[in-house]
Every structure is written in structure tokens, then in C-alpha cells.
């Protein structure tokens, strides 16, 4: 559980840094942020899946040994862990979607800025042309 909390905090911190740095990053730096965020997500999912598998083995062992109440408790914990894995996957997908949307917005802003610069240059050329007459 401690590992998962650390990974969640790490991912949130990384995403905040990325959002604060938008427009200032090179494409290589953006790719690094995306890759690092993805790796944290995989690590988080892996941790939960390992916890689920260990819980399943413990439940089976408890059931075989006749400890039915322990088995029931462990199975309940497995269901909880599985729901948390699903939630982590959804959060990861949402974060990836927001990251993609942010990239699209940044590309649109850059395109608008480039178009604005292009319009400014056209006016300057046009005015210079008129002055020569």
C-alpha cells in the first residue's frame, strides 16, 4: 500500500510539472514525461496485480487448511484490490486522455501563433510594397 501511495504521488507530481511546463518543453522532453508517466502507471498496476495474486494464494491456502472465515476475508480483500486495480487503470486512461488533450491544445495554440506571425509578416510586406510606390 505504501508503494502504491508513493507511485500515485510521484505520478501526480510529474503531471503537475508537465502541465506547468507546457509550451516550454522540447518534443524530446515531452516524450520523456509521457514515457515516465506511462512507466509509473505500469508499475502501479503491477504492484496491485501482485497483491491480488498473493491474496488469491493466501485465500486458497486458508480454504485448504479449513480456515473458512480467513478465506472469506481474504476473498473480500481480493475483490477490493481488484476494484482498486480497475480504478488505477481508469485513472491512468483518464490521465493519458488529458495529456493527449493538452498536447492537442498546445499544438493548436502554436498553430494559431504561427498563423498570427504569418499574418503580421504579410501586412509588413504589403506595407513595404506600398511605400515603394
Automatic annotation (TrEMBL):
It comes from the Eukaryota. InterPro entries: Smac/DIABLO-like_sf, Smac_DIABLO. Keywords: Coiled coil. The keyword Iron does not apply. Gene3D superfamilies: 1.20.58.70. Residues 78-105 form a coiled coil. The keyword Disulfide bond does not apply. GO terms for cellular component: mitochondrion. PANTHER family: DIABLO HOMOLOG, MITOCHONDRIAL (PTHR32247), DIRECT IAP-BINDING PROTEIN WITH LOW PI (PTHR32247:SF4). This is Diablo homolog, mitochondrial-like.
Amino acid at each position: 500500500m505504501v508503494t502504491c501511495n508513493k507511485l500515485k504521488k510521484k505520478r501526480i507530481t510529474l503531471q503537475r510539472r508537465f502541465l506547468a511546463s507546457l509550451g516550454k518543453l522540447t518534443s524530446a522532453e515531452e516524450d520523456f514525461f509521457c514515457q515516465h508517466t506511462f512507466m509509473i502507471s505500469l508499475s502501479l498496476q503491477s504492484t496491485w496485480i501482485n497483491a491480488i495474486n498473493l491474496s488469491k494464494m493466501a485465500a486458497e491456502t486458508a480454504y485448504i487448511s479449513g480456515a473458512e472465515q480467513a478465506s472469506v476475508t481474504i476473498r473480500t480483500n481480493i475483490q477490493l484490490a481488484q476494484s482498486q486495480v480497475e480504478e488505477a487503470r481508469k485513472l491512468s486512461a483518464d490521465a493519458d486522455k488529458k495529456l493527449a488533450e493538452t498536447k492537442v491544445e498546445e499544438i493548436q495554440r502554436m498553430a494559431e501563433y504561427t498563423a498570427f506571425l504569418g499574418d503580421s509578416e504579410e501586412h509588413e510586406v504589403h506595407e513595404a510594397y506600398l511605400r515603394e510606390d
